[in-house]
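New here. Invent one.

***
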Amino acid sequence: MAYSTKVEMKEIKEDARPHVLVVDDNVVDRRIAERLFIHSAWKVTTADSGKKALELLSQGEGALANINYQGPKIDLIVTDYRMPGMTGYKLLKRVKESPDTKAIPVIVVSSDNIPTLIEKCLKRGAQDFILKPLKQSDVNNIKSRD
């Protein structure tokens, strides 16, 4: 009986971890971000495109601004800016237009250090814009904001 109690407590503790959705078309960058967040005690879900991220948020391409999100709670979205198909900016826009997900903080990451691009993302509602490569100190700073 004590064993099952320990398992239940472990599951409760794991479920209490903040949950990040990492979106990047580059598998290396995606895996690096995943490892950095796991190292900082985050639960991580990954997507290799903006379209797949929206599917994870129950907002397929045919949907408009209504996501009607029913999945596991996402506490943060970290998305690459430059991705084929749907850019990180378009993903940010879709997330912020939906009443169901607009409260989820979105951080855009990019190797492009272009002030107008950074300003555009921040004006659209990004919580932050971080230059690649993502580092452990970046993730620690994100974690300390909670």
